[in-house]
Amino acid sequence: MNNKTLQASRRTLILGLGAAATLPLLQGCFPLVAGGVGAGAAMVADRRTSGAYVEDEGIEWRTSSALRDRLGDAVHVNVTSFNRNVLLTGEAPSEAHRAEAERVAGSIANVKGIVNEIQVAGTSSLTSRGNDSLITSKVKARFVDSAQFSANHIKVVTEAGTVFLLGIVTRREADAATEVARRTDGVRKVVRVFEYITDQQARQLEGKKD
């Protein structure tokens, strides 16, 4: 399979997964993530250590569970952990709820830092969340199309049209990803939540695993 064919296949898969992920949202169901599907391949391609990758999954689950226990349906908060740094997005009815969500996330074991991007606003609609899922899939597909960096190294989260980019990347990769995301249809704003490394460190991480 040549590079163009492989790239097209990856792009089709990303778009297909994005569309599939949208269906449960539009139907009002809580989407369940099949963590075992492709998890091994994703871990190998990731710059995080295998331990950090698994820990991030646990942090997301524990934080989401703690937020439900503490705040219930009062807030709509999405939790994304990357290399043990937690990004909080979504909506809260007051600044007090927003601050409490951050406090709860900070109490979770092994969390290194928190980026609180929760907006004080009414809960987003299912249609809005579905649109965000489609934007995420389009950004990922355009990452593959651009061929300027490995799309596997950057995690994309979209909330109300704002795209958050996470990953362990070089400045060149960060700038390229930001420009691609910024030019994607439907994107209102791009927020970088990166950890920066040098080109030499990036090469070293390609051969990591513990």
From TrEMBL:
Keyword Transferase part of the UniProt annotation: no
Protein known as: BON domain-containing protein
The keyword Oxidoreductase is assigned to this record: no
SMART domains the record matches: BON
InterPro entries xref list: BON_dom, Lipoprotein_DolP, TAT_signal, Transpt-assoc_nodulatn_dom_bac
Keywords: Signal
Pfam family, one: BON
Organism of provenance: Aromatoleum toluolicum
Domain BON: 55-122, 131-201
Domain of life: Bacteria
Record-linked PANTHER family: BON DOMAIN-CONTAINING PROTEIN, OUTER MEMBRANE LIPOPROTEIN DOLP
